[in-house]
Amino acid sequence: MASSTQSKPMERQGNQGGQQGQRHDELQPVKDMLSYLREYAVENPEVAALTCFGIGFVMGWKLKIW
User: Fold this and answer.
1) What is the pLDDT of residues 17-63, one digit of tens each?
2) What secondary structure does DSSP assign to the chain, as a single string?
3) DSSP letter at 24?
4) Averaged pLDDT for residues 6-21
5) H or E segment and range at residue 14
6) Crossing angle of helices 45-62 and 29-43, rounded to 10°
7) Whole-prediction pTM value?
8) Which of 41, 56, 61, 66 has the CB geometry, 3.0–4.6 Å to 48, for a possible disulfide?
9) pLDDT at 17
10) CA distance linking residue 5 with residue 11, whole number of Å
């Protein structure tokens, strides 16, 4: 019986159509990177804050008008 219950989800994926099955196979690097950065910022808030400050400092220094 265990094998018959395991095969049902596979049958459902095949009957739903080609596009829904392909959506799960597509890579989403932007979403993956953003979720990784959020997790990292929650675990290491000091490093994330200093990194943002450093990037802002360098951009402000390079983009200043005068």
Assistant:
1) 555 555 667 889 999 999 999 999 999 999 999 999 999 999 999 99
2) -HHHHHHHHHHHHHHS-HHHHHHTTS--HHHHHHHHHHHHHHH-HHHHHHHHHHHHHHHHHHS---
3) T
4) 52
5) helix 2-15
6) 120
7) 0.51
8) 41
9) 52
10) 10
